[in-house]
Amino acid sequence: MKDPLLSLLRLRKQAMDDARRMVAESLDAHHVAQHRLHLAEENLERETRAASALDAGDGAVEAFARWLHIGQAEITRCRDTEREAGGAVDRARAALGLARAAVEVVERLIASRAEAEARQAIRREQAQIDELRRRAL
Fold first, then answer.
1. Do 94 and 35 touch, CB atoms closer than 8 A?
2. Cα–Cα distance, 53 to 56 (Å, whole number)
3. Predicted local distance difference test score (pLDDT) of residue 127
């Protein structure tokens, strides 16, 4: 007969493994988002320096003025994505914490049951010893 607590423990451990994968995946996505934000900010800085250079002509300044709203919009998108990815990391970590707690609860139930069974076995043995003593008297 299958032990329901052991089956539950297997399921809880699988959920914990899934939660670990989600943390890893969300961390990867967050790092990618941070990298893209960094690149967009560097791009804006580079374009600003190029347009601000003393040898930059009117064409470079005009091109920068036309491009600026595109660059700023990209930074805004990257910041939003990075913020969302950070939230996903937080949610995945919280889910992992809950999954770990669920595993611990089942492990404690199993340990508690084992202790109760051991105490019951000791009581049975003591009862047998007591019965043997009574018979011997």
1. no
2. 5
3. 92
- What is the predicted pLDDT for the residue at 60? 86
Q: What is the CATH number of the domain that holds 71?
A: 1.10.287.1700
Structural domain count of the chain? 1
9 neighbors 107 (Cβ within 8 angstroms): yes
Q: What is the dihedral sign for C-alpha 43, 46, 49, 50? A: negative
Q: Which residue has the tokens 């988002």?
A: 33
Full-model pTM: 0.77
Angle at 119 between CA 113 and CA 123, to 5 degrees: 140
Residue 117: which domain range? 4-136
Using CB atoms within 10 Å of the CB of residue 112, give its burial: 0 to 12 exposed, 13 to 18 middle, 19+ buried: exposed
Cβ density class 12-38: b for 16+ within 10 Å, e for less: bbebbeebeebbeebbebbeebeebbe
CA atoms of 17 and 24, how far apart (whole Å) = 11
> For the chain, which residues score pLDDT lower than 70?
1
Mean pLDDT of the chain: 94
